[in-house]
């Protein structure tokens, strides 16, 4: 429910913006999703994914809003999962040089957290947008 779900046109437009050089069919704008949700925790993402699966509704991931990989293209409608509120560092293991982070952690925030540990997370140049947001990685 509000404020974690929106079907407002302005929100759709913002969540269908992309920087990709790829165009949609006929060069038209990227089609918007049917709704945007802002999960706050992994459990909510799991519940939303289960609901989408049961109802045959496409899931459209949304991270940093560049759309360089074409991930925000809602080709058949669907629910946009805006993961920007999930930016915590879940686990840090200095022993094995690994860190588990939520999907919207930035390299800057991660490196700030790592300051003083002797570890750092380099910004990758592999892939479009790689290194700007994290997943599970070593440092």
Automatic annotation (TrEMBL):
UniProt xrefs under PROSITE patterns: FAD_PCMH
**What SUPFAM superfamilies does the annotation carry?**
FAD-binding/transporter-associated domain-like (SSF56176)
Cofactor(s) listed in the protein's UniProt record: FAD
Q: Which Gene3D superfamilies match?
A: 3.30.465.10
Name the Pfam families for this protein.
Answer: FAD_binding_4
Q: Molecular function terms in GO for this entry?
A: D-lactate dehydrogenase (cytochrome) activity; D-lactate dehydrogenase (NAD+) activity; FAD binding
One cellular component term from this protein's GO annotations in UniProt: mitochondrion
* Domain FAD-binding PCMH-type intervals: 29-139
What InterPro entries does the entry give? FAD-bd_PCMH, FAD-bd_PCMH-like_sf, FAD-bd_PCMH_sub2, Oxid_FAD_bind_N
GO BP? lactate catabolic process
Similarity comment: family membership: Belongs to the FAD-binding oxidoreductase/transferase type 4 family.
State the protein's name.
Answer: LDHD protein
